[in-house]
């Protein structure tokens, strides 16, 4: 009987702490599964979870600038046309002065690039100073009012060509491009 009491007393003494209360958060561990996040899609379905991928257009503008400059260097008229909107306007001081069709402007750019005699192996960095590339919202660039073809969601990319880049990009006519972001970003004004 004495042994039974001793065992019961030991069991009661070794019982440990009570379980945590429901209000106390349980600490995360590296064994916890990651939080589930739905995959971003271009379209949603009623009743299904969805995620949105949002971009301000800055990365699209930078990528388009690289594609456009290299297409001009290569004299690739079809790639230049793919980078341009159906109509490209000349935006200066908030006013649209002139517009060109995509094909006309692409031919003008290719002709000027061919006359520049820039080497075909010129790199993007030898044509544009990467440190000078800046992307801003169109509304910030055109403080006195947006040109008719420019919307507030468009972005403006500003850059400084090198001496060789100025010769190559003479047909482009500007170191400022207005980009319309989206599934297929395009230059809408220069």
Essential attributes:
190 residues; alpha+beta; Nuclear Transport Factor 2, Chain: A; 6-stranded mixed β-sheet; 7 helices; 6 strands; elongated
3D architecture notes:
By secondary structure, the chain is α+β, with helices and mostly antiparallel strands. It has a domain at 58-189: Nuclear Transport Factor 2, Chain: A (Roll). It contains seven helices and six strands. The chain has helices at 2-13, 58-74, 77-83, 102-116, 124-127, 138-141, 163-168, and strands at 84-92, 95-101, 128-137, 155-161, 176-180, 186-189. A six-stranded mixed beta sheet has the order 2-1-6-5-4-3. A hairpin with a 5-residue loop joins β5 and β6. α3 packs across α4. The model has no long low-confidence stretch (mean pLDDT 81).
In short:
This protein is α+β, with helices and mostly antiparallel strands and 190 residues long. It has helices at residues 2-13, 58-74, 77-83, 102-116, 124-127, 138-141, 163-168; strands spanning 84-92, 95-101, 128-137, 155-161, 176-180, 186-189.
């Amino acid at each position: 009987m004495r042994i039974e009491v001793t065992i019961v007393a030991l069991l009661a003494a070794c019982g440990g702490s009570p379980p945590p209360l429901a209000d106390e958060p349980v600490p995360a561990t590296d064994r916890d599964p990651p939080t589930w996040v739905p995959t971003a899609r271009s379209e949603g379905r009623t009743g299904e979870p969805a995620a949105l991928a949002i971009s301000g257009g800055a990365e699209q503008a930078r990528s388009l600038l690289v594609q456009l400059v290299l297409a001009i260097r290569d004299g690739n008229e079809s790639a230049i046309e793919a980078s341009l909107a159906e109509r490209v306007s000349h935006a200066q001081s908030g006013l649209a002065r002139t517009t060109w069709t995509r094909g006309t402007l692409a031919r003008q750019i290719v002709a000027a690039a061919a006359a520049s005699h820039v080497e075909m192996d010129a790199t993007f960095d030898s044509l544009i100073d990467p440190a000078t590339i800046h992307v801003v919202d169109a509304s910030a660039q055109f403080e006195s009012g947006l040109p008719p073809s420019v919307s507030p969601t468009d972005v403006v990319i500003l850059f400084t060509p090198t001496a060789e880049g100025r010769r190559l990009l003479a047909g482009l006519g500007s170191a400022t491009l207005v980009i319309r972001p989206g599934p297929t970003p395009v230059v809408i004004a220069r």
